[in-house]
Specification:
four-stranded antiparallel sheet; about 30% helix
């Protein structure tokens, strides 16, 4: 499917955290902004990225919506555990998400779906998904990382929620906004 750049927008697919967790994560992001003037992580709601940013024509948004909705219908909700903090080198600080089979399977299947159904992307990374919720990145310099990371590397943080939807987010040119939510099947005991 050919997409011209003049009509293309940036999108990504994620699992959003529920409000009570989003408030906690946003408070941490605000701390980084107030203390270190690091604010790029505030440009998106707290989330776990399942499919990284890609370009898609605005005029074909219903094709994308239909595809993601059809995909989501085939997967059930599942629990997610957030535990403590981690870092990628000296450029990203995040709240850790405990790996689980449901999350890994969903990520793998979505990546294959995007490649096969929408002809975008490549095969999933053999290393698998490293689930996390970013609290500081992009404007986090190595110097500020050295100051901030010691305060978070041993900090305890633990929360749980049920992942019951996928979210499609679009970049406005300034920040990411939620375009649509796609419910997963509900597991009823």
């Amino acid at each position: 499917m050919k997409r011209s750049k003049n009509d293309a927008r940036l999108y990504f697919i994620a699992i959003l955290t529920p409000n009570h967790i989003s408030n906690e994560i946003t408070a941490i992001k605000q701390y980084f902004k107030k203390t270190y003037n690091i604010k790029k992580a505030l440009n998106s709601p707290p989330h776990i990225t399942l499919y990284p940013p890609f370009r898609w024509r605005l005029s074909e948004i219903e094709i994308l919506n239909t595809s993601v909705r059809n995909f989501a219908r085939n997967y059930s909700s599942f629990p997610i555990n957030i535990k403590d903090f981690g870092a990628f080198r000296n450029r990203v600080i995040y709240a850790g998400v405990t790996k689980n089979d449901s999350l890994q399977s969903l990520w793998y299947a979505l990546t294959m779906w995007m490649m096969n159904d929408l002809q975008i992307g490549e095969k999933p990374d053999k290393r698998g998904l490293h689930p996390h919720i970013t609290v500081a990145f992009r404007d986090l310099s190595p110097e500020i990382f050295k100051k901030a990371w010691p305060k978070y590397k041993n900090k305890s943080f633990e929360m749980q929620f049920i992942a019951d939807h996928l979210a499609l987010l679009r970049h406005t040119g300034k920040h990411w906004e939620v375009v649509r939510l796609f419910p997963l099947q509900t597991n009823n005991p």
